[in-house]
Amino acid sequence: MRKITFIFCIQIIIVTHCFSQTIINRDPEIAQMVKEVSADSLQSYIYQMVNFGTRNTMSAANDPQRGIGAARNFVLNKFNNFAKKSGGRLAAFIDTTTLMPDKKRIDTATLLGNVVAILKGTDPNDNRIFLISGHLDNMRGSPTDRIGDAPGANDDGSGAAAVIECARIMSSHSFPATIIFVTVSGEEQGLLGAYYMANKAKKENWNIEAVLNNDIMGSNNSNETNIIDNTRIRVFSEGLPAYDLDKTAKQIRQFGLENDGKARQLARYVKEIGERYVENLEVVMVYRNDRFLRGGDHTPYVENGFAAVRFSEMNENYNHQHKDVKKENGIQYGDLPEFMDFEYLRKNTAMNLSNLANLAKAASMPEEVKIEVKKLSNNTLLSWNAPKSGKVKGYYILQRETTSAFWQKKYFTTEKEYLLPFSKDNYFFAVQSVNESGNESLPVVPGVVGR
Ligand SMILES: [Zn+2]
Known about the structure:
Structural class: alpha/beta
Order of helices and strands: HHHHEEEHEHEEHHEHEEEHEEEEEEE
Number of helices: 10
Strand order of the largest sheet: 1-2-4-3-5-8-6-7
Bound molecules: zinc ion
């Protein structure tokens, strides 16, 4: 008798802590693209990038064999080859600006070039942009050393290779929204290529809804231990927003929304979608914008008010980052391709691809999402309007306890209003639009209507 009671309790716990309300299938088109991500392709891109000797931002711009110029042309040629199979939708170019000496990391006027490929969306009413970024430049011990060898296999050959591989596979598919694939330069000089692009996006009102920044995500061990961890990847996201906090702080405090900003929502989303499509990979959310003592190319976007996150491997090996290639006391230093785990990089690239594809296929987010607080009640009434672009079959209502990092329940409805028998005081809610093939938009946290 006691035993039966025990089992009953366990069942209750399971039911309240899983997505028991909705069965979600993989979209076969995305599953197929995920299958096409190739460890061999990624490996070949990285060896080719390493063969340019150095990709320091101030290295040779016009040498066909060595330096950042040769590396830029390599990526541009890849993008241009993919463009041939894109039905005229993929356009690639090098976006340049001149960097002036700053007495720190730039000692001479330098032409900076971001290699960009834009896969234009097929819906003329859809102006959303989803962006994947990695940095093509690298450094050895000194950021101004443009002569010595700097292989940069992992930092950030891994991120640049992931961008190229996503462009290869996705450019032969069509999406209603636009996807931008970019390998930037000047990261090691202070995120300069990303600042150039993010500032331009802000100034020109680009509707960027998500930025996936990949930096150091293809190696599986730390310098302190030999433990191999190739089943987890970290996603870093800011809590309190860097942008416009003065205007939003009061509301964030009042409603307890410190974990529900754009970047954190995106992190939650990429975890769910990445784990839906990629086997043997856990996306680990880290509740901070970046690691100690280091920066990343998502930050210029975050500072401009865009949702942006950073992906990095679980454990970093500092013997292989920002080091001259040398052997000392039996330890090999330098960012060499022999330290890469291309199967791990394949999974991390596939995780990016599944997210870009799911976002770009989905309808846009529902509009005017509201939670009613006109009177005291133990129910919760949510309402919203249809998205601006894309066709929906319905909407998902997301629910979690205020202490939970992840959405715990997901309900489907075809209506534009939903009454839940749970108190709004005790849970967080959000609404996503979902289309015929099951692709869901980013979630929208409801605004408050009432008093
Ligand atoms: Zn880096």
